Amino acid sequence: MAHPVKIAVVGAGSAVFSLGLVKDLCLTTNLAGSTVSLMDIDKDRLDVIHKLGERYAGELKANVTFEKTMNRREALTDADFVINTALVGGHDQLGEMRQIAQKHDYASLHPLTGMGSITPAFPQFKLMLDVAHDMMEVCPEAWLIQSGNPVFEGTTLMSRQTKVKVIGLCHGHYGYRVVARLLGVNPDEVSWVAPGLNHLIWLTDFRYKGEDLYPLVDDWIATKSEAYWRDREANPDKYGPEDYMSRAVIDQYRRFGLLPVGDATRGGGWWYKTDLATRQYWYGPTGGFGSELEAPPRLARLARQVARIREVACDESHPVLEAFPPVKTSEQQVLIIDALTNDVTGQFQINVPNQGALLGVPDDVVTEIPAIIDKGGIHRIHVKPLPKKIMLEVIQPHILAMEWMLEAYLTGDRRMLLDGLLMLNTYHGGAQTKSYKQAAEFLDEVMALPFNRELAQHFK
Amino acid sequence: MAHPVKIAVVGAGSAVFSLGLVKDLCLTTNLAGSTVSLMDIDKDRLDVIHKLGERYAGELKANVTFEKTMNRREALTDADFVINTALVGGHDQLGEMRQIAQKHDYASLHPLTGMGSITPAFPQFKLMLDVAHDMMEVCPEAWLIQSGNPVFEGTTLMSRQTKVKVIGLCHGHYGYRVVARLLGVNPDEVSWVAPGLNHLIWLTDFRYKGEDLYPLVDDWIATKSEAYWRDREANPDKYGPEDYMSRAVIDQYRRFGLLPVGDATRGGGWWYKTDLATRQYWYGPTGGFGSELEAPPRLARLARQVARIREVACDESHPVLEAFPPVKTSEQQVLIIDALTNDVTGQFQINVPNQGALLGVPDDVVTEIPAIIDKGGIHRIHVKPLPKKIMLEVIQPHILAMEWMLEAYLTGDRRMLLDGLLMLNTYHGGAQTKSYKQAAEFLDEVMALPFNRELAQHFK
Fold first, then answer.
1. Would you kindly state where each structural domain of chain B is located, as residue ranges?
2. What is the pTM of this model?
3. How large is the ipTM?
C-alpha cells in the first residue's frame, strides 16, 4: 500500500544526482502519489531537472508529481523528507581552488575535507545550517538526508547546532564490490561491515558465503597484485580512473591490517601524493582521485553527462526512458525514504551521531556505520572496534581536524584557519605546509577570491 | 615531631639534581632520622653524590643517613618514597640524537617529547616501567616521585600499566616569577593557576594582591615589549638564555588569549624554529631552548656544575657548606615528602592522572594541575577549563601524540614510529617531515646507533 510523501530536494540542479533520484522515485511503487519539490537557485538547471522529472514520470506512467521552486522555504513546507545535495559554487570553484593550492605548492591538499579546504567546506557549512534551521521552523518533523559534502563535518555540525533528524549518505562503501570482483567472487554473495568516519571506512568484516575473504586478499597480494598493477599501467583504458586495490591500498592494508574501502582508498598519507609520478606509483596511471590527470577528465565527463541530460530533457521528440533506461541506481536515498515510510525494513550504511556504535568515538561525532531503518526510525548496529592503530593514526586525527574546522567556523577565528594549514595532517593528505609564508599567502589569496567575499568577512 | 622515612633515589648520579635534594633533605627538620638510599648504575658518580650527602649532613649536623647501592631493588626495599631522576644514556646521547636530527634536516625536532624523540623517550619508558614494577613487588605502598622526563608520557604510562602511586614533577611553572618581575611586581605576592599538560601549561589566573595581572601584560606589550626585545638583542649577556616573554610567547598570547608559562614558552609551532635566524627573532638572541647557540653552552654549563660538585665533594679540606650554602631549593620533591609524612598541608603543582580536574582530558591521562597534599594523600584542585582553542590546537594534539607513542612502545610497531615522524605535528615542533625518504633514513640511522641496539630489537 502506497504512502505518498512530500520530498524536497535542495540543490536539485545537480543533474546527475537528480536524474538518479528521479529514476529511483518513479520506480518505487511504494511511494506512488508522492510529490517532489525540486529547489535550486539556478533557474535554468532547475527547469531542466523539472522537465526531466515530469517527462520521466509521464513516460513511465509513474504517479509522482514534480514541482519546482527557487524558494527554499516553499520547497520545505509540509515536506516529510529533505534531500540536500547542494554544492555552493559548484565544481568550477573547486577547480579554481585546486589551481591556487597547486600554485602555492600544496600538492596534497584535499579539496573537500581537512583544514586545507577553506572553501567550499565553510560555505557548505553555512548552507547546511541554513537548511537545518529552516527545517526547524517549516517542517521540524521531516528527515534531512544530507547528500552533499562534507558529510562528516557538516552532519556533525547540523546535529549539534539544531535538533534536525539528519542522516548523511555517501556511496563510497560500494567499493567493496570492486574488490570482490578483483578477488574473483560475486559481489552479490559478499557480506561486509565497514565502519569509520565518512571517507575513512575499513572492512572489519568481509565474507563470501560466510567465509572470511581476507585469506583470499593475502593470496591475491602474494600472487596477483604485481601482474594486476603492471596490466593497469600497460592498459590504463581497460580500467577506471581509480584503483581500489592500488599499491597505496595494499600498503595501508600492511600498515593497519584491514582494507580501506571506497573513498578511504584515496588517502593514506601526504607522502603518497608529493608529485604526479609518486601518485602514479601508489594510485595507478591517473595518479588517483584529485590528481592533475584524474580531475580534468572527470570534470569533463561530468560536464558531458550534464549536457546529455539537458539535451534529452529538452528534446521532446526523444523518449527519456530510451536515453536513461528505467533501472534503479544503487543510491540509498529513496530506499531509506521508503523504509522510513512503509513496512520495508532495510539495512543501510549511514552517517549519524555515533551514540556508542563505534568504540572510541564521542557520542556527538558522526560515524559511518550500518543501521537498520524502518518506520520506527534508525537503529544503529554496534560494530566491533577498529584496531587501535587505525583509531590513533586515522580516526582520531580526523576527528580533531573536524573539531578544529567547526570551532574555526563557529568563532570566525581566521587564525585557526592559518594554524590549521600549518599544523594539521590527516590521512587524506592534510596541508603539509613548508613555511609560514606559504600558508599565509595561500590563505590570503583564497580569501581574496571574488566568490569568497562573504567567507572573508566571516573570518575576521 | 619528626617522622623518619626511607627515600630511594634512582639515578642519584644526576649531580645537580641530587645536590639540591641533599640540601633540601638536610634542611627539613621534619624528616630528621630519615635514610636516603642513593642508587645509580654509574659507580663513580654514585660515590661522588654519596660523599657529598654524608659530608653535607655531617657539616650541618643534620640527622640524615645516606646509603649507596648499585642494586635498584636494594634501594627500593622498605622505601616510603622513590624519586626517579634517571636519564638513560644521559645528555651525551641527547646531543648525538640532536646532531643526527639536524643532519636529516629536522630543525625543530623536540629532543624529549613528541614522536620525533625516538630516543631517549622509549628507553626512559622502559626504565620507568621497570622501576614501577619493581616497586609493586618490593615497596608497593611507597610513593613514586617521577622527576625525569618525559614526565607527561611516562607518568601516564606507569599509572596505566601498574598500580604505583605516582606523582610527576617539573619546575617549569616557576616561569611565572620571571614574568612577574618583568611586569614590575613582586613574584612573592603573585597568585597564579597554570593547568595543562607537563611542558604545556597556561596562566588561567594571574594576580598581584588579588588584582588581575593581564591588563598589566597588555600594557607591557603595548608600551615596553619592543624596547625589552631590543635590549635583549643589544645586551644578551644581561639576560638568561631563555626569554619567558619572547616574541613567540606574545604571539602565542595573541593567538590563545592566555600566557604560556615555563617550558610551554619554548613551543608554539615548528614555524618559529625553521632556522637559527627565525628562532632568534621569535625566542631571542640564543634562538631559545634547543637551538645550536643555546644547547652547547647549556650542556657545558651543566658539565662545569657537575665537575664543581665532584671537586668539592672529593676535597675533604673544603667545607661543602661553604661551596653550596644551606639554602633550600625551590624544588617540590622534599616538600611533598614532608606533606605526605607530617602534618604540613601544602599546595603543589603536580602531574597526576586527570580524574576530572581539567575538563576535556580523559581521566587516565596525566595533567599538570594544582593539588593539596597532606597525610591523606593528594587532593586534586579542579581548575577552570582552558579555552577551546588551546584544547584543540595544543592539548588534544599532544594527547594524541602521547597515545601514539605509548601504543608504538607497547606494541613494538616500528611502522608507528615512521608514521609518527611523517604525520604528527605538535606544539613543540613535531617532525615536519619533508619527504618519506627523509623520515625513513632518519629512523634507520637512529636505530643503528650502538646505544639503541635494544631499542631496535624492541621495534621490529
1. 173-293, 388-418+434-458
2. 0.94
3. 0.92
